[in-house]
Fold this sequence. Notes:
With 79 residues, the protein is an alpha+beta fold. It is 29% helix and 25% strand. It is built from three helices and three strands. Strands 1-3-2 form a three-stranded antiparallel beta sheet, with no helix packed on it. A hairpin with a 2-residue loop joins strand 2 (63-68) and strand 3. The longest helix has 11 residues, at 45-55. The protein is globular and about 35 Å long. It starts with 8 loop residues before the first helix and ends with a strand.
Amino acid sequence: MWNRLSRTEKEQSDLITEKEWVKDLVNVGKHYLLGKILQCKVVNMEAMKNVFQKIWKLSLELHIKEVGDKLFVFLFYDK
């Protein structure tokens, strides 16, 4: 399924970051998704992890790393 997901040429050129954490994610054998939570409440990391694990029907554990103000990297592992 993951091999069908890709960014358009415009989307690739629009991705700009100077954050060091991005370099740590490249070539580590994982798939990742960057997301921002848009609610005002404090984010419960464990609840968020459990909800996304169930919604996405993941067979392997989902890891979530906070990398900014309500900005998260969701790490998925291959089977």
